Amino acid sequence: MKTEQTKLLIIGAGPAGYTAAIYAGRAQLNPVLYQGPQPGGQLTITTDVENYPGYPEGVLGPKMMEDFNKQAARFGTDVRWGSVTSVDFSNSMHKVIVDKELEIHARAVIIATGASAKWLGLESEKRLNGSGVSACAVCDGYFFRKQDVAIVGGGDTAAEESLYLSKLCRKVYLIVRRNELRASKFMAQRVLNTPNLEVRWNSVTDEILGDKTVTGVRIKNVNTGEMNEIPIQGFFVAIGHQPNTSVFSKQIELDEFDYIQTKPGTAQTNVEGVFACGDVQDRHYRQAVTAAGSGCMAALDAERYLARG
Ligand code: NDP
Question: For the chain, which domains are there?
């Protein structure tokens, strides 16, 4: 297998990975960055981003990531296509295999592989993604203000996002597959006490309706089999996220939900010289701006680590 040496390897090309690259590039570390299977990350499957500071008119997610990419390249990051297929962090020189054909020896590694939203798996969900279907209420809820929307899920994310939507939208339907919420009692109570938020219990999504944009949802009662169509303009999925950590799981400490654990207030993992930033280590905030902030932390921590020699 071909081998190569580098000071700093960054894995992942979302806001976290690119911000780490910009900082590391400006610190003359000449990082190598692998983009992975979804170059640009989750923002490439969204439309307008209106909550990232510095863009008063908003910006398209894919365009923003293109700009991140250019900015990283401008400061000397070697941005490459390719996915990491295995790692060996047992020695101080960290080994990372790319596409099963290139072995990179890196003194420091920044993991920024993100997380992926879980989807229901319906054809209509895929077809209408970005045209009324979204997995992020905080990102896309604003486009449905004063309209009717539905959201699927019963955990804290669904509770939090349905409450968020209830402040913007005329009516919010929360579609829950059981007869109770998994969310914390406090959140569940707030959901139940919100007048324009209606919970449809024991219900699963049979189909999202609409040709070019969402016009409704057909739900099925799991006890009676009864179908119901609800007219809506926006459909949100909030059934959890999966951090992209499977390739690291035997090498690095993960929490009970498979997110990478970092030492509080730093980007340091339990392995010396390996850092993590962005959604792969954050199951709470999951915003582009928080990911970018933690990417900066990872680069500064890596720079300090490398300076120690
Ligand atoms: P969870 O895994 O906690 O909840 C997922 C929810 O989606 C469950 O209610 C589950 O139903 C439902 N679900 C899963 N698959 C399907 C499906 N195919 N169809 C319909 N419904 C489905 O994920 P969350 O993202 O909500 O939360 C992740 C973690 O983050 C939790 O520990 C949570 O407490 C935490 N969190 C905390 C917050 C806070 O403290 N403010 C905010 C957000 C998250 P079922 O219940 O039947 O399994």
Answer: 2-116+241-307 (3.50.50.60), 119-237 (3.50.50.60)
